[in-house]
């Protein structure tokens, strides 16, 4: 059995016509018949019932078709990968990120700097929350995670802080505190807070709660949100206030304004994480590039 025979089986099962199938395969009908006959002899089952008027799959042929399609698909994937390698493809990095990091200049600087040095490496990026990224990282389903500290410190992982940004208050457009250029977070103690739904002690959600605690209060009305953009959308419709990284200033949202805080410790840090004993040389180069660009 070879891939040509499997491919012939799959195409004929779709067309149920030897002439049309041979045309699609760009082979002669006798060659197609030989492919099917060889499979039937090797597998010991009849795949098709044929006469002068029709071609139909047998019960056995129908049972084998799904696996045959999968095998042909896998072969094609391997063939394309081999072609990419032959053309100079050297590897791939799967990079996870938290949604709020996508507008931070450090991410664009890091990826563009790496691509300039290693243009042959493919970088795929996907958005996940902090916990999901760390889980994917530990399961070898991500190569690098871009998260917001604080994060759980796992013995199997290494970490690199990239940048720390001040947190700013995000307020409805007509909020009375907006006449101040800088406010104390305690001035918002009675407001409903929209906070990112991170686990206790983790991420932007914990940075927000820590800032409130330093200001001497615990928010009494809290609505947890999936991410920063959802929280800001809720601020726009008057559902409360939130804190966001200072990079959010670059994004203008109708019915929302921003205000700086007087707490220098109210910050959020973007952190890279990766498996300590990984074998992907492209990941090692990416981390080295990050250290070189940022330190």
What tags apply to this protein structure?
single chain; 295 residues; alpha/beta; Arc Repressor Mutant, subunit A; D-Maltodextrin-Binding Protein, domain 2; 3 domains; eight-stranded mixed beta sheet; two-stranded antiparallel sheet; 9 helices; 41% helix
Can you give a write-up of this model?
This protein has helices at 3-15, 18-25, 29-43, 59-86, 105-117, 130-138, 203-214, 228-236, 281-294; strands at 48-50, 55-57, 91-97, 121-127, 144-149, 157-172, 182-183, 193-196, 222-225, 242-245, 256-261, 267-275. The chain is of the alpha/beta class. It has three domains: 3-86, Winged helix-like DNA-binding domain superfamily/Winged helix DNA-binding domain (Arc Repressor Mutant, subunit A); 91-161 and 270-294, Periplasmic binding protein-like II (D-Maltodextrin-Binding Protein, domain 2); 164-268, Periplasmic binding protein-like II (D-Maltodextrin-Binding Protein, domain 2, 3-Layer(aba) Sandwich), CATH 3.40.190. The strands form three sheets. Strands 3, 4, 5, 6, 7, 10, 11 and 12 form an eight-stranded mixed β-sheet that branches. Strands 1-2 form a two-stranded antiparallel sheet. Strands 8-9 form a two-stranded parallel sheet. A hairpin with a 4-residue loop joins β1 (48-50) and β2 (55-57). It is elongated and about 85 Å long.
Summarize the structure.
The protein is of the alpha/beta class and 295 residues long. The protein folds into 3 domains: 3-86, Arc Repressor Mutant, subunit A (Orthogonal Bundle), CATH 1.10.10.10; 91-161 and 270-294, Periplasmic binding protein-like II (D-Maltodextrin-Binding Protein, domain 2, 3-Layer(aba) Sandwich); 164-268, Periplasmic binding protein-like II (D-Maltodextrin-Binding Protein, domain 2).
């Amino acid at each position: 059995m070879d891939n040509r025979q499997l491919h012939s089986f799959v195409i004929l099962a779709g067309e149920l016509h030897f002439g049309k199938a041979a045309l699609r395969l760009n082979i002669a009908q006798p060659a197609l018949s030989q492919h099917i006959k060889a499979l039937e002899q090797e597998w010991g089952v009849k795949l098709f019932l044929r006469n002068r008027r029709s071609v139909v799959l047998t019960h056995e042929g129908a049972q084998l078709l799904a696996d045959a399609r999968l095998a042909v698909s896998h072969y094609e994937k391997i063939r394309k990968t081999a072609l990419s390698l032959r053309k100079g493809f050297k590897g791939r990095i799967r990079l996870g990120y938290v949604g709020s990091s996508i507008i931070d200049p450090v991410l664009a600087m890091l990826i563009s700097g790496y691509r300039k040095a290693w243009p042959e490496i493919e970088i795929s990026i996907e958005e996940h929350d902090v916990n999901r990224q760390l889980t994917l990282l530990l399961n070898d389903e991500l190569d690098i995670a871009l998260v917001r500290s604080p994060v759980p410190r796992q013995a199997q992982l290494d970490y690199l802080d990239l940048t720390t940004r001040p947190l700013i208050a995000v307020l409805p457009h007509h909020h009375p505190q907006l006449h101040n250029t800088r406010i104390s977070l305690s001035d918002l103690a009675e407001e409903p807070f929209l906070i990112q739904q991170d686990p206790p002690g983790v991420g932007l959600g914990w940075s927000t709660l820590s800032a409130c605690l330093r200001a001497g209060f615990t928010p009494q009305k809290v609505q947890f949100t999936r991410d920063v953009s959802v929280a800001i959308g809720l601020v726009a419709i008057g559902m409360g206030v939130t804190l966001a990284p200072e990079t959010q200033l670059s994004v203008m949202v109708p019915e929302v304004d921003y205000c700086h805080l007087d707490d220098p410790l109210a910050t959020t840090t973007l952190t890279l994480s990766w498996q300590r004993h990984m074998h992907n040389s492209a990941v090692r180069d990416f981390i080295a590039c990050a250290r070189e660009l940022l330190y």
